[in-house]
Write a structure and sequence with these properties.
This protein is α/β, with parallel strands linked by helices. The chain has three domains: 245 residues, Rossmann fold (3-Layer(aba) Sandwich), CATH 3.40.50; 174 residues, Thiamin diphosphate (ThDP)-binding fold, Pyr/PP domains (Rossmann fold, 3-Layer(aba) Sandwich), CATH 3.40.50.970; 128 residues, Rossmann fold, CATH 3.40.50. Helix content is 42%, strand content 15%. The strands form five sheets. A seven-stranded mixed beta sheet has the order 11-10-12-13-15-14-19, with helices on both faces. A five-stranded parallel beta sheet has the order 2-3-4-6-5. It has a five-stranded mixed beta sheet with strand order 16-18-17-20-21, with helices on both faces. Strand 17, helix 21 and strand 18 form a beta-alpha-beta unit. Helix 5 packs parallel to helix 6 and helix 8 packs antiparallel against helix 9.
């Protein structure tokens, strides 16, 4: 049946039975493709019926559906003409794993970070009304935001709800709650009240009754207020929607998010609505696939796996041995916390992803998951630090962007000893531009008082973690996604603040690399030796403070410096080296910075992207050869 769905229009004529069969097909296609390509599974399986109902009732893209985060957009892609391309999901040059404006007119707003849907949808609704007021009579479409209950922990979502209730625009917010179920009694009452509350008869009756009551001389206003309170009390007794009602939304729910007929009836009842409405649906994350139903967290985002056995595929023996950087961090933090009861760990709804599972189990009272609220996580950590604790904020690079003001104002300005464990720094891969951690070195390097480190391997990460917790200052340790390279042990004592490590001597060229780039830089140096070029390699270790003394010495000795970083070039590590040489007034030095130009890096495998942007060993080799053949460009 899915092969016959070329656009949402093809859903209009389907019977209820056909739509249920289509839901089964969608789940099978999603499971099959994610098991091959990797991706987000549980959240997509949970919204299949909702997606069918939305596209059956509304007319996308005239009616605009905005998916929060985008973790649940696969059924939407399949129903909007992208079934034949679905095999390319998350592959370089293929379909994005998230909504993307340039990919389809049905993708109204590009997403990847949580909690943006309500604010974006309100902006779209306000624009619709402004254009309609200006004479554009075609601007009549509905605007629907689909947001998960977890995303409501973000302040941005609450800001959007607050403003939407104030503006009172015609806006539908669907709250997809997959953390609770509906008991039979509450469900039956809920279904009954929803039929009444969404029906045109009820709305007309409510409006006319209010007018009659207000017309009663002297006491009309008071009677109206009593009636409104009675209605609110009745609904509040049965329904958990008082907060949304107080914010100015008409609350509907909770209803079963897997009952297509009920969803269609509810959504169709809102066609004539003109006020902000919040529909609370309850879904099962991972529905329809027993492994994801049993453990929806593991199958939220996954690599390729055996769809029959539900096991993650590990083709490479080395992969099963080498731990991920996240695991190395988590294990090291547990060891340090066992010896120092001042250490506490904080995450923003990413306990598993950042490697804090073991810490949360062993140090329950010293572990804090603040929900999807990165700004709060940082300021909360700052508060802990003022009282003598050593907070560690474990966060993905791309999500740390959301807390920049708090880093500057609440931590660094006050010079508080908060340690940021910045996971997924650099090229992340298939999740694409919303998740590439390519800006952190630039936006962190500008902040006074902050020490920034980047380990070349897992053991150096352990050392940096111990070293950073000893410093009475703000610290950021930035490390990549993926398996760690394990070298010889390096205790924290081997680190000196602001001092780099010379890994290989060279007479004609010095490659100064940061973090993940150190290993391919060493490989490139061997290739250069075979090419007749003597290249030294430096592990920068510290992005800030920079090892100015070593860099200037090597610049004078070899006359050629190549910096390598998985970060945008603007304001990054290479910029720091250029600034260092310029301030020293050093002349006759050729400097080339290798990194990401002024662009957003698309989705694709890490290996593919590093090759494309010249950040693998071969790319570094070619950049070094070009530099040795170039005339001095600095001074």
């Amino acid at each position: 049946m899915i092969e016959r769905i070329e656009s949402p229009r093809d859903l209009k004529s389907l019977s209820a039975g056909e739509m249920k069969a289509l839901a089964d097909e969608l789940r099978q296609v999603i499971i099959e493709r994610v098991s091959i390509n990797g991706g987000h599974l549980s959240s997509n399986l949970g919204v299949v019926e909702l997606t069918i109902a939305l596209h059956h009732v509304f007319n996308s893209p005239h009616d605009k559906i905005i998916w929060d985060v985008g973790h649940q957009s696969y059924p939407h892609k399949l129903l909007t003409g992208r079934y034949r391309e679905f095999g390319t999901l998350r592959k370089h040059g293929g379909l994005s794993g998230f909504p993307k404006i340039g990919e389809s007119p049905h993708d109204i707003f590009g997403t990847g970070h949580s909690s943006t849907s309500i604010s974006a949808a309100l902006g779209i609704a306000a624009a619709r009304d402004l254009k309609k007021a200006g004479g554009r009579q075609d601007e009549t479409g509905k605007v629907i935001a689909v947001i998960g209950d977890g995303a409501l922990t973000s302040g941005l979502a609450m800001e959007g709800l607050n403003h939407a209730g104030h503006l009172a625009k015609d806006l539908i917010v669907i709250l997809n709650d997959n953390e609770m179920s509906i008991s039979p009694n509450v469900g039956a009452m809920s279904n009954y009240l929803n039929r009444v509350l969404t029906g045109t008869f009820y709305k007309k009756f409510k409006k006319e009754t209010k007018a009659i009551l207000e017309g009663i001389p002297k006491i009309g206003g008071r009677v109206t207020r009593i009636a409104e309170k009675a209605e609110g009390s009745l609904k509040g007794f049965f329904l958990p929607g008082g907060l949304f009602e107080d914010l100015g939304f008409n609350y509907i729910g909770p209803i079963d998010g897997h009952d297509i007929e009920r969803l269609i009836e509810t959504l169709a009842g809102l066609q004539e609505a003109s006020e902000p409405t919040l529909i609370h649906i309850v879904t099962q994350k991972g529905r329809g696939y027993k492994f994801s139903e049993e453990d929806p967290c593991i199958y939220h985002g996954t690599g390729p796996f055996d769809s029959d056995l539900g096991l993650v595929v590990t083709n490479c023996a080395a992969q099963s041995v080498a731990p991920s950087y996240s695991d190395v961090f988590g294990e090291a933090l547990v060891g340090l916390a066992a010896a120092d009861d001042r250490i506490v760990a904080i995450t923003a709804a990413m306990k598993e992803g950042t490697g804090l599972n073991a810490f949360s189990r062993r140090f329950t009272e010293r572990f804090f998951d603040v929900g999807i609220a990165e700004p709060h996580a940082v300021t909360f950590a700052a508060g802990l630090a003022t009282q003598g604790l050593r907070p560690v904020v474990a966060v993905y690079s791309t999500f740390l962007q959301r807390a920049y003001d708090e880093i500057v104002h609440d931590v660094c300005l006050q010079n508080l000893p908060v340690l940021f464990a910045v996971d997924r720094g650099g090229v992340v891969g298939e999740d694409g531009p919303t998740h590439q951690g390519l800006f952190d070195l630039s936006f962190l390097r500008t902040v006074p008082n902050l020490v920034i480190m980047a380990p070349k391997d897992g053991n150096e990460l352990k050392s940096m973690l111990a070293f950073g917790l000893r410093l009475n200052a703000p610290v950021a340790i930035r490390y990549p996604r993926g398996r760690s390279v394990l070298s010889s042990e390096c205790p924290a004592e081997c680190l000196t603040l602001g001092k780099a490590e010379v890994l290989r001597e060279g007479d004609e060229l010095t490659i100064v690399a940061v973090g993940q780039s150190v290993s391919p830089a060493l490989t490139a140096a061997v290739m250069l030796h075979e090419h007749g070029i003597s290249a030294g390699v430096v592990n920068a270790r510290f992005v800030k403070p920079l090892d100015r003394e070593l860099i200037l010495e090597l610049a004078e000795r070899t006359g050629k410096i190549l910096t390598v970083e998985e970060n945008v070039l603007a304001g990054g590590f290479g910029s720091a080296v250029l600034e260092c040489i310029a301030r020293a007034g050093l002349t006759g030095v050729s400097v080339k910075t290798l990194g990401i130009d002024d662009l957003f890096v698309e989705h694709g495998a890490q290996k593919v992207l590093r090759r494309k942007y010249g950040l693998d060993a071969e790319g570094i080799f070619h950049a070094a050869v070009a530099l040795t053949e170039a005339r001095p460009v600095h001074g």
